[in-house]
């Protein structure tokens, strides 16, 4: 795995934000961390980035421990790119200087050509010398993406980076981001509360609820084989009714359905999309 969480728990002052959290992100894989507000998504990302130390457990990048008992590698040494919804560009720096800012580890004379290439990647070269305030939200997010990708991170950590954009723009910025990440070979851990976004972008989805992983799998697996009724309901509206299995069938006011492998007489909840 490129990025690995092993038995992570995270306790804020009063809030246990994550528990028993283990997840691998393979090389070149896009994993979406999906769940409602407050379930621990941002905490997970902050722990991966190195802006938060896990209370227990380890984080590994390419099999090397970057956070764990007695070990803590700072964010700038982890080779990760960060992109947030409100990852504000510096208003007093031009677009080009904003992107160059992420390249402080590179030699001075390399920064400009690398930054320009990154801007080209997101179609923003012609805005290199303007200030962020004249750009639209979508353009600013493109620049933020260029800034995050410019240093060539092996892991992109993205926290709801598209949720501030309107629908039409969101689709294009999202597709662009995905194709840039794919081209670069980076792995991505993308946080979202939007099941549609996760379905659309993820190789695998990690569904989080109250600080615990409830299911990890491909979008198809989560949609067609949800682990429980709540997981099913997260992806679409559902109708629910109760019934009792009889003769391998279950009958409720909405019809009769097969109930394979469930013993006759079992009381069940029926969840219908
Ligand atoms: P999400 O990103 O899924 O909305 P967070 O990871 O931000 O969730 O938060 C998880 C839980 O931890 C929430 O209950 C939140 O209130 C709490 N929390 C987050 N950050 C802090 C903090 N800095 N101090 C105390 N509690 C926090
Ligand atoms: Mg969050």
Structure at a glance:
The chain has 273 residues and is an alpha/beta fold. The chain contains eight helices and 15 strands. The longest helix has 18 residues.
* Tally of individual helices: 8
- Sketch the topology as an H/E string, one letter per element: EEEHEEEEHHHEHEHEEHHEEEE
Tally of extended strands? 15
Range of helix content: 25-40%
Low-confidence stretches: none
Tell me the distance between the termini: 35 Å
Q: What is Rg?
A: 22 Å
Biggest sheet: strand arrangement: 7-8-9-3-10-11
Mean pLDDT: 94
**Which percent range describes the beta-strand content?**
25-35%
Largest sheet: 6 strands, mixed
- Which geometry do the CA atoms define? elongated
Specify the structural class: alpha/beta
Are any ligands bound, and if so which? Answer: adenosine-5'-diphosphate, magnesium ion
Set down the secondary structure blueprint:
Blueprint: E1 3-11, E2 16-25, E3 30-34, H1 41-49, E4 56-61, E5 64-68, E6 71-72, E7 80-84, H2 95-101, H3 108-121, H4 137-149, E8 155-159, H5 167-184, E9 187-192, H6 195-201, E10 204-209, E11 212-217, H7 219-224, H8 229-235, E12 239-246, E13 249-252, E14 255-258, E15 267-272
Parallel strand pairs: 3-9, 3-10, 7-8, 8-9
Antiparallel strand pairs: 1-2, 1-4, 4-5, 5-6, 10-11, 12-13, 12-15, 13-14
The structure holds adenosine-5'-diphosphate and magnesium ion.
Magnesium ion binds next to helix 1.
């Amino acid at each position: 795995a490129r990025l690995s969480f092993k038995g992570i728990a995270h306790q804020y002052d009063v809030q246990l934000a994550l528990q028993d959290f283990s997840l691998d992100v393979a090389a070149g894989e896009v994993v979406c961390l999906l769940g409602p507000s407050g379930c621990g998504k941002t905490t997970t990302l902050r722990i991966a980035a190195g802006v938060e130390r896990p209370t227990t457990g380890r984080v590994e990048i390419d099999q090397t421990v970057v956070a764990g008992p007695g070990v803590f590698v700072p964010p700038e040494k982890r080779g990760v790119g960060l992109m947030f919804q409100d990852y504000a560009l510096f208003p007093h720096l031009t677009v080009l200087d904003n992107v160059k800012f992420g390249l402080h580890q590179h030699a001075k004379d390399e920064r400009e050509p690398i930054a320009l290439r990154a801007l080209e990647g997101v179609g923003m070269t012609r805005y290199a010398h303007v200030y962020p305030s004249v750009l639209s939200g979508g353009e600013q997010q493109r620049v933020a993406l260029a800034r995050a990708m410019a240093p060539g991170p092996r892991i992109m950590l993205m926290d709801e980076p598209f949720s501030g954009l309107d629908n039409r723009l969101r689709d294009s910025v999202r597709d662009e981001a995905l194709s840039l990440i794919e081209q670069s070979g980076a792995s991505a851990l993308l946080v979202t509360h939007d099941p549609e976004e996760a379905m659309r972008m993820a190789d695998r989805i990690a569904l989080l609820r109250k600080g615990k992983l409830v299911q990890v799998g491909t979008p198809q697996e989560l949609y067609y084989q949800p682990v429980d009724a709540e997981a099913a309901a997260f992806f679409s509206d559902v109708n629910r009714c109760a019934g009792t299995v009889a003769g391998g069938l279950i009958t409720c006011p909405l019809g009769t359905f097969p109930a394979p492998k469930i013993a006759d007489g079992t009381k069940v909840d029926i969840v219908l999309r």
